[in-house]
Amino acid sequence: LAHEVTLPADRYTVVDTKLIPTGELKPVKGTPFDFTTPHAIGERLAQVPGGYDHNWVLNTAAGQHRAATVYEPTTGRTMEVTTDEPGVQLYTGNFLDGSLKGKNGVVYGQHAGFCLETQHFPDSPNQAAFPSTILKPGQTYHTTTSYTFGVRK
Predict the structure, then answer these.
(1) What's the confidence (pLDDT) of residue 62?
(2) pLDDT value of position 60
(3) What ranges make up the beta strands (E) of the chain?
(4) Which of 12, 25, 84, 92 has the most CB atoms at less than 10 Å from its CB?
């Protein structure tokens, strides 16, 4: 939860109690969803019931663009995510319950990890204001997402 995340997104998709998008896009400014500047994932996690499992609306036009930057302050490890998708989902392992064991028997409890998933907005087919995910006969869908790792000295 100490990983610092930056998301170039001024809005996020609001979800209901079942984590289904309502169709509303809300500004992140002044909320625990504001990662426009670096913030540790755990810094405001308690302010989001259940944890993060939301889509951020990236501030970009078409083409390859930055979706996220992650920095781990203890080791200096970095990760940059680029994509041609319009959104990125941040998920904070909300449903990890300790039943999974990793390397050397490490137990993965709630919030023991996070995911950054580039995507079109969830429930796009049912939300007219979201970017379309309809693929017509004869059309081809192609997307590219890159995860680049490094170390900050």
Answers:
(1) 80
(2) 86
(3) 4-6, 9-15, 21-27, 39-40, 53-58, 65-71, 77-83, 87-91, 100-101, 107-108, 115-119, 145-151
(4) 12
Mean pLDDT of successive 10-residue stretches along the chain, which has 153 residues: 97 95 97 98 96 96 92 98 98 94 94 96 94 95 97 91
- Per DSSP bridges, beta strands 21-27 and 9-15 are antiparallel
Please state the φ and ψ torsions of residue 116, each to the nearest 5 degrees: -120, 110
> What is the pLDDT at residue 87?
97
Start-to-end CA distance of the chain, whole Å, equals: 21
Domain 4-151 bears CATH identifier 3.40.50.880 = no
- Structure tokens, 67: 């979706």
Measured CA distances, 144 to 66, 82, 109 (Å)? 12, 8, 31
The residues facing 149 across adjacent strands are: 79
Residue 30 neighbours by CB distance under 10 Å: 7
So what's the pLDDT on residue 108? 94
Q: Coil, helix or strand for 43? A: helix
